Structure formats: structure tokens, C-alpha cells
Amino acid sequence: MRLSPLRSVPRVDLLIGLAIMALGTLEAFTVATEYGAAQNPELWWVGQALATGVLVWYRRRAPVAVFILMILAQYLWHRQGNEQCPVWQLAALLIVFHTIGAHLPLKHGGAWALAGILIFDSGAVDHRFLPFEEVIYLTVMFGSAYATGLALRGYLLRAHRMSERAARLEIERERRAVEAVAAERSRIARELHDVVAHSVSMMVMQAGALRRRMGTAQEGEHSSETAILSGIEQAGREAVEELRIMLGALRMPQDEALPQPGLDMVPNLISTVGSSGLRVTLETEGEPVHLAPGLDLSAYRIVQEALTNAVKYAGEADVRIRLAYRRDHLELEVADNGGGAGPALSTGNGLIGMRERAELFGGTLDAGPLPEGGFRVRATLPISQGVPMSEATN
């Protein structure tokens, strides 16, 4: 259903227009003869008052058109033999001069306001020679109305600039707050790594050294103590590994600390680039295991970045994604046979970002062109002994 045209009219303009209609109607029934009308009431004044009120309603939407129509209405008013201008017409003229100043740039608005003042001062509207004092009166009256509009425009522009500046400052404040939180998280991660991980590693080393010394004794002696030390050593190693993974998640951007995709989403990633002209194949070696969330996310992001780079630079090419699960590490490889110029990787992090993700978990990453053509990204990520996918799903 279409809305009424009046719904788009600002309420203040709607009220001003209705006030002009009411005032014009009142004057038509009460004081028409005082302005040179033949009788009282003068009913055709009501129609002109209604038309003037409608023009005021749309003065903001088309200020120049309303300005011209108001001057033409004044010309027709005087051509009908009326010598004086009633209050409702004078009010409408002052309003449209104000609108020219408030809603047009200084250069264009000033030109239209000056043209309007000259038209009235020259007597072109009522076809008579105006005395000097009336010229001064009209100039001051219409010029003041334009000046008030110009002052309002300047105020609104300053308010708009201040609002934009406040919005920029708010965005900058939020950015700095996020950076401060990230810096604090990174500092906490470094301190935890330096203090806790170092202490636990020393405990593991000492337990391992003591176990090896006791292992040199005669068979059967200290067997229970050796088993205990072996358990302490294994638990310590697992604690260091879990601590490293948790600290890696702590150093991630905050938006990546939430649940994120992992390597199980690589097939979905491949389907999203199917329309790019690439022919992508996925190879999996070994039995997939459940990875720690941070490691799983970083592995997925490396594959995603490398595949995005292939889409951007390789053209219509063959892309091979290889995921190899080894006993103690994971190998990722994304290679294409196109003409990709891979060093300028695509999403901003690029090669540096992928290498940081790999090194965060103690891995390595190398990328470069292949001798036979194309580009390859290969990463190696250490993993602790994980639970096979087949067992986890049972």
C-alpha cells in the first residue's frame, strides 16, 4: 500500500502550511476589503491561501521551484488589482527566503536571494515605481529572512561535522580499547608461557632425569617409583602441550576466540570456489584426529588463505589440497599449476599471517613458485596424540 504524500512532509512544515491556510482563510473572511478587495469575504483568496500552504509544505524538497512559484503568485496577485500584500502572503515569502538560505549552498542560495530582492525592489512584481524607503524596507526584510536561513545552515553544518567527529572518535576509542585488550591478552600469554610453562618443563626434565637414573638400577628395584616418575613426566608433557595450545588461543584475535570452523569444513570451503574456474581436489592421508580448537582453526585459516590466493591469481587451474595426519604432526599443502604470483597473498594477513599462525603452534610454513609452474603453500604443525575421528564419533 502506498503512503500518503503528506507522510513525507516534516511535521513542522505541515503545521506552518496549515497555519498559512488558516490565516489566509481568516483574512479572506474578515479584512479582504482593507487590502483592496471588492467585497468581504473574498472567497478566491481561500484557494490562493490553500495553494500557498501546499507550496510551503514542499519548500525543503524543492526550494528553488517553490521560491519561483511564490514570486509568480505575487505577480499574479498584483495583476488582479490588489495593491497591498496580506499578512499570510508576506509570511510565506519570508519563509521561502529563509529556506533558500538554509537549504542551498552560499553561492547558489545567495544568487537566488539577490535575484528575488531585486525583482521586488525594481517594482517588477506590482508594475510601479517604489519609493526609496520601501526599497530599503523590502531589502532589509527579505535579506534578514535569507540571513536567518544562512545562519541556520551554518549551525546545522557545524553540528553535522561535530557529530561525524564524535562518531570517528568513538570508533577510534573502541579500536584502541580492542587493541589494549589484545595487548594485555598477549602480555598475559607471554608471562604465563615464561613462568608456568618454564617451571612445568623443568619439572618434566627433572622427573625424566631421575627416572633414567633409577632405570639403571637392577631390574625389579624401584619399579613402582619409576612408574610414578614416568607418569609424572607424561602428565607434565601433556600439561605443557595443553598450556601452549591455550596460550595460543589467548593470543588470537578476540573474534577468533569464539567457536570457529576447522579442517572438517574444508569440503565446504572447496564448494564455495567451484564457480571460479578452479578444479580443486582434496586428498587426506592418515587417519584424521581431533585437533585442539586453536590448532584446528589455524590449520583451516592457512588452507583458506592459500586457496583464496589461488582463486585470485591462478586463473583456471588445478588445485590440490593435501591433509596428511602423521603420528606427531600435521602436514598441509595447497598447490596449483596456474600462473599464480603468490607472494602478495590476498586477505591482508597473507604469507606473514599464515606463517605466524604456523609458528604460534611451533610449526613451519614455506611458500613459493614450483619449478614446473604454479604455486605451493606447505605447512607443518606439531600435534599431540589426538583421538581418531572414527573413535570420537562412536
Automatic annotation (TrEMBL):
* Chain segments annotated as transmembrane: 12-31, 64-80, 86-104, 136-156
Record-level Gene Ontology MF annotations = kinase activity
What range(s) does the Histidine kinase domain occupy? Answer: 301-385
* InterPro entries noted in UniProt: HATPase_C_sf (IPR036890), HATPase_dom (IPR003594), His_kinase_dom (IPR005467), Sensor_HK_TwoCompSys (IPR050482), Sig_transdc_His_kin_sub3_dim/P (IPR011712)
Catalyzed chemical reaction(s) = ATP + protein L-histidine = ADP + protein N-phospho-L-histidine
- Superkingdom is Bacteria
EC assignment: the record states 2.7.13.3
Q: What class of enzyme is it?
A: transferase
Answer whether the UniProt record assigns the keyword Membrane to this protein: yes
The entry's keywords: ATP-binding, Kinase, Membrane, Nucleotide-binding, Phosphoprotein, Transferase, Transmembrane, Transmembrane helix, Two-component regulatory system
Q: Which PANTHER family match?
A: NITRATE/NITRITE SENSOR PROTEIN NARX-RELATED, NITRATE_NITRITE SENSOR PROTEIN NARQ
Q: What is this protein called?
A: histidine kinase
Q: State the organism of origin.
A: Microbispora maris
